[in-house]
Amino acid sequence: QDGIKAGNLAMACQTLVSVIFNTAVPTLIAKVGIKKLLACSDLLFAGCLFVLALQSSPERWPTTAVFALLGVPWATTTSVLWYVVGRACEGLSNAGLYNGVFNMSQCFPEITISLVGLVLFGVGGSDKTLFAVGGGGALCAVALLPWLVVPKETDHEDGLDDVLDEVSSFQDPASGASSGEGEGEGYSYGYSTDPGGQGVALWAIVAVSYTHLRAHETPEHLVCRLLLEKKKKKNKDEHVSKSKRK
Fold first, then answer.
1. Measured between alpha carbons, how far is 52 from 110 in angstroms, rounded to an integer?
2. Over the stretch 17-61, which tens digit does the pLDDT of each residue have?
3. Are 240 and 120 in contact (CB under 8 A)?
4. I need a labelling partner for 77 at 20 to 30 A (CA). Which of 94, 146, 150, 182 fits?
5. Which string of DSSP letters, residue by residue, matches 28-44?
6. Which SS3 state, helix, strand or coil, does residue 68 take?
7. Full-prediction pTM beyond 0.90?
8. Residue 213: what pLDDT?
């Protein structure tokens, strides 16, 4: 009974730490980046497992504290990696399939360590041996992080207002040029000034996805789009009808 109570307490503490840490994940991603956050998380995970493996006589409260700390890598695994996959699949027609494959892939380490555990226990290993193997696996994850491809955390669609602010703040009174143009990441811009250099006309072409446009569609845009689609369908039907008559 005491063992069950201690285990439940350790799991409750781990869950509490995980929930609290999850609230700080967006801020940490912005400050240190995804790879550094994952590296720190995996190192903490490895450290906790090695501590459990090296304990000669486990005591209740120190062990509970170690299990509570495991809530940090748990939170990172269940939030940051899903964020990376979600960004990578953004805009793909079969994004659900890739997310499903990733969800299943998270089960592979659990299955692997279960099979390894059977072998270890069969040859005289113990829980400490399994903890040590898990710690080694966490260090391998840290070593693989340099090959992790992290999608851009922001793109020109998200920064559309920043792009327009950049263009609208442009002034060219010194050079005396009456017109000019330039390019940024995902957009082009141009300007023209009147002979006195007082007025500035600006234009900007920003590349946005169809999904982005639909997400910002107003009722007026919806009506125009439906009318255009209806007209295109009508023209297509007329073309097909004329072809058949020929």
1. 18
2. 999 999 999 899 889 999 999 999 999 999 999 999 998 887 888
3. no
4. 94
5. HHHHH-HHHHHHHHHHH
6. helix
7. no
8. 52
- Count of helices and strands (H, E) across the chain: 10, 3
- Residues sharing a CB contact under 8 Å with residue 211, sequence separation 6 or more, in sequence order: 91
Contact, 172 vs 191, CB < 8 A?
yes
- Is 51:150 a contact under the CB 8 Å cutoff? no
Axis crossing angle, helix 2-32 with helix 60-69, rounded to the nearest 10: 30
Tokens, residue 47: 């450290």
* Contact of 141 with 42, CB cutoff 8 Å: yes
CA angle 53, 68, 84 (to 5 degrees): 95
Which residue bears the tokens 């090959």? 147
Mutual angle of helices 71-88 and 2-32, in 10-degree steps: 40
CA distances from 149 to 37, 44, 84 (A): 14, 22, 9
The DSSP letter of residue 169 is T
Using only C-alpha atoms, the chain has a radius of gyration, in whole angstroms, of 29
How far apart CA 36 and CA 32 sit, in angstroms, is: 6
In DSSP terms, 96 is beta-bridged to none
